[in-house]
Amino acid sequence: MSESLLQYGNRINIYKNVCQIIISQLNITFDQLCQFHYHYHHNKQYEIVNNDLLVNMNTSNIMNDHSNTSNEIQIQNKMNYIRSIQSNLYTIQMNIQKLSGWYLLIYRLLTNIPAMLICFIYGLLLNRISQNYIMIIPCLGCILSCILFIINLLPNLKLITNSMIFILIGGTLYGLCGKSNAINLCVHSYITQYSNKKKRTNIIGRLLGVNFFGLAIGALLLGTILLKQITKSGEQDVTLLYLMNQSNLLWNTELYAYYITCYYSLMFIQLIILLPIIENKFLIRDTTLIIIGLFTEMIRLLILSLLHHKILIFLSAIIGSPACYITTCTKSLISKLVIYNDELNISLTIISIIEIIANFIGGFLFIFIYNKTLLYYSSFIFIFDVILNIPVIIIFIWLRYKLIEYELNRN
């Protein structure tokens, strides 16, 4: 839960600071720019252009008198003024989206690269030091980072107005302590040492299920606490950027937090309730669950890219929730394929490092592509994600066939 609040809260703060930096050079208020959206009152009688400008769209009473040319000119001038404001705000918002994306990328760089090196060191020490001692270090790093993030929120303590220096330093410190990846490394090492292969998928599923439950609660709290603020979040960053950019959805931070809550809650149910039933009753292979998760994830991405309705987007969270099997079953499968116990910690360390590298590269790639395609076809990034999943599915189908063949030959 704390991880969810920490990461999503920092994204919100970065976006807010970028907004403040840009509007400090403009003759416009923060609410007009950073909370710009459209609403319709009753039967579209009124249109709110921003928080300060309310325009009556029902001009039939004014236009009844066709002989009054001055009224027509006033109405036309007012509508032209509204269109110019909308156009200017849209251009500024696009610039904010692009600049915020690069700042988010810098934040990911400062947190993930140190974490990758530290997890490598932790992996070498797992055979010498207890997992409990190593797990304490990321917790202490999280506390120290939160202190710096709090300092950044206090305007009287900021060295530079609208500066993000404390966010970046806090992210670096958190990365130097290993982030949550170090905790996951230690926990998975403990599970692989003290569990048998038959129950390992179930145990790892419970672990990640509780993790998703914490993420869901954290996202729910975030949406409640940070009401009326705009946020951003590889795919999480782009999903939020994309949803907030769809004016026809009337999306806001609170609604996005509820979407994340729904998504992670369903993952929690999948791993805690459904996975044990599947493991015990149907004896489905790990590779089969991975393939199912990849297919449902692709369907979710296609719904996000092609269908722009709130209900359908929440439906995509339901359909895509089996994607939680991908990570769970992949880690379980790798641990089962390792024959010698001495190699388990090395394998888990490599997995943690690869996860960190993937997070950074994915964040860079997705933000870069989203910024380049934003003005042309903002949905392209999700279609691109679907295309990337196709070779992964092919690989796991091939792997499933080879593992079955190997087991038959072994027997």
From TrEMBL:
Whether Magnesium counts among this entry's keywords is: no
Where does it live in the cell? Membrane
Q: Write the signal peptide boundaries.
A: none
Q: Which GO terms describe its cellular component?
A: membrane
Recorded coiled-coil stretches: none
The record's keywords, sorted A to Z, are: Membrane, Transmembrane, Transmembrane helix
Membrane topology, as annotated, equals: Multi-pass membrane protein
**Membrane-spanning parts:** 105-126, 133-153, 159-177, 207-227, 256-277, 289-307, 313-334, 346-370, 376-401
Q: Name one GO molecular function term.
A: transmembrane transporter activity
Top-level taxon of the source organism: Eukaryota
This protein's record includes keyword S-adenosyl-L-methionine: no
State what protein this is by name: Uncharacterized protein
